[in-house]
Amino acid sequence: MIDPIPDLSSKDPNWWRQAVVYQVYPRSFADADGDGLGDLKGITRRLNHLAALGVDALWLSPFYPSELADGGYDVADHRDVDPRLGTLDDFGALAAEAHRLGLKVIVDLVPNHTSHQHVWFQEALAAGPGSPARDRYVFRDGRGPHGELPPTDWQSVFGGSAWQRVPDGQWYLHLFAPEQPDLNWANEEVRADFRTTLRFWSDRGVDGFRVDVAHALTKDLEEPLRDLGAPELSGEEALSELPPGSHPFYDRDDVHEIYRDWRKIFDAYRPPRMAVAEAWVPGARRVLYARPDELGQAFNFEYLKAGWDAEELRQVITGSLASAREAGASATWVLSNHDVVRHTSRLMLPPGTDENAWLLSGGHAPAVDQEQGLRRARAATLLMLALPGSSYVYQGEELGLPEVADLPFEVLQDPIWEQTGRVRKGRDGCRVPLPWTTTGPSYGFGAGGAWLPQPERFAAYAVEAQDGAEGSTLELYRRALRLRRKLLEGESLTWAADSPAGVLDFARHEGWRCVANLSGTAVPLPAGEVLLASRPLEDGRLGPDTTVWLAP
């Protein structure tokens, strides 16, 4: 064990309950060596941007060794750094600089699967059927006279069968890409290895973990394996159609014993390490992952998926706060991440829009009003930041970046594109590298180009273009986060009883107030001192797609 990096950030063990966490997608944030791929040194050099922004922590998406079959979520070694992105020493320098600046560090943990390049999987292939090495994964004989059919009808999230055949005739399970074989969490060696991984990163200055696909680790592997009977039941949306805990590989009750075991490790550190679950499950089931003796927090995807509708959002907010209280956790709020269309564009799509069809059209059908989209995104941000709990911000949203929907098909990297037979365009449009300057081969991302092409319109969104510019989205985020630190106390809100239709109006600690107008017309502004508005008022009235914070 190495000597832990001194923790120079806040010692408050509950810092995460009201934190603003900034998600960094390492390959798209900043490139220090000019090879077109973002890296750890690039992130370290740009940490001042996060400190000036006013966030509390950064969450690093995977930076581990990977062939990038799934954007880094195909991990070949959970306790190392991809050499294209740096070294363990580089990670140590990043963590030390983050802590010096008062920032916490959260890393992505990917426990459901490994890369097929992982030493364990290579051992499993070599060892053959029935071996201890194969028991670390989910291998089964196929069906049919010669084992030529998959063991079950389970489908991959990325399309097609969730089973892949190997040369000796057996099949292995992969809920995602074939390059991502699922681990067998009934195997004690797997559990012990991840305990080692949690301690490995905690000893190197990590303050917390984001747990990828937290709801899928345990599976019902009793023979005979169960067919689902319909391909659509393999998707996470099927959880609302099946009895709770009964799905063969999603959200099973026995997954929680894993997280109770992890909590003992988290609590052995001072301050305790935090964790947040990525669990795409109904709200009543999601809160189980957020219990104090488990991960402590879980992403609230109902908020992300809600439309630009005041009543829908009010119901989601009320329900989310109630479920968080029930779990003893704080609520979480998120508008964008590395898996979804950026909200600057998404909030402008008409209700019911097929987002994949929109992406396939290059963002032209339907056409999106980017100016109005930015107005809605800014209003949505001020609304989110006023809510009790933690806000998770995706890199570039502080610049108002829209989705790059018109990426040419030939540059796409997301495995979804090929695995679905080029039917689903995938997630590359939200992963295009950030613009830091208004000129240069990659707008300041690095000395060379960028691994995904940046559109010329990115120049207007660059940090350089917005820094210090009155009214810019970047300055709005900075002001909002400075105010939030002063204003945000407690974990409750009180809805106004008389707000107009299409308006969300609630009071927080000592009466400060957030009012968001999601209607199509201007409304009277309640009494109070305007602290911050997402855009200028209209003759003292709150215009459409506008949020304001008021002091009593």
What descriptors fit this protein?
17 strands, 26% helix, 15 helices, 552 residues, 12% strand, disordered N terminus, seven-stranded parallel β-sheet, alpha/beta
SSE diagram, text form:
Layout: E1 20-24, H1 40-45, H2 47-53, E2 57-60, H3 88-100, E3 104-109, H4 119-127, E4 139-140, E5 163-165, E6 171-173, H5 188-202, E7 208-211, H6 255-266, E8 274-277, H7 283-289, H8 301-305, H9 310-327, E9 332-334, H10 343-346, H11 355-360, H12 370-386, E10 390-394, H13 415-419, H14 463-466, H15 473-487, E11 494-495, E12 503-507, E13 513-517, E14 523-524, E15 529-533, E16 541-542, E17 546-551
Parallel strand pairs: 1-2, 1-10, 2-3, 3-7, 7-8, 9-10
Antiparallel strand pairs: 4-6, 5-6, 11-12, 12-13, 13-17, 14-16, 15-17
Helix pairs in contact: 5-6, 7-9, 12-15
Give the CA-CA distance, first to last residue: 53 Å
Helix content: 25-40%
Side by side, the strands of the main sheet go: 8-7-3-2-1-10-9
Largest sheet: 7 strands, parallel
Task: Quickly count the helices.
Answer: 15
In terms of DSSP E residues, the strand content is 5-15%
Unreliable stretches (pLDDT < 50, length at least 5) are 1-9
Which quaternary structure do these chains form? single chain
**What is the CA-based Rg, rounded?**
23 Å
Overall mean pLDDT: 94
What's the total count of β strands?
Answer: 17
Outline: globular
Query: Which structural category fits the helices and strands?
Result: alpha/beta
